[in-house]
Amino acid sequence: MDTDMLYGPMTHPGLLDVTRILEVLKRTVPIERAGLMVPAPGAVGIEAPDVIPAHDEYRAALPGVAFDEIPRWDFYDAAKAEDVTVVIVSADQRLYANLLLTIGVRAPANDDNPGGFPSRR
Fold this sequence. Notes:
This protein is of the alpha+beta class. It is built from four helices and three strands.
């Protein structure tokens, strides 16, 4: 099987990471909740880091948003769930940089809120 046809060519790994994508998304859609991939139970060595820098970036970028920590294999199952409607594939190569977002509904626009939801800048 030609994986380039399935996943697209990885000509610029790391060029567009999840943090950069998140900066655009948080200004575009109301994010209600975020799920972080964490090591699976029993993970050892490189698969069980003490610190996951990407998670710190996500938490800083989304103040006030609730975060869930989802073990690796459960995360994959959640990402394949029937209610997942949009998947964005990045070139991020950091370990456990995956992020699962719950998107809310826009509030009606009005004079004080022309975009329809509060900005999280």
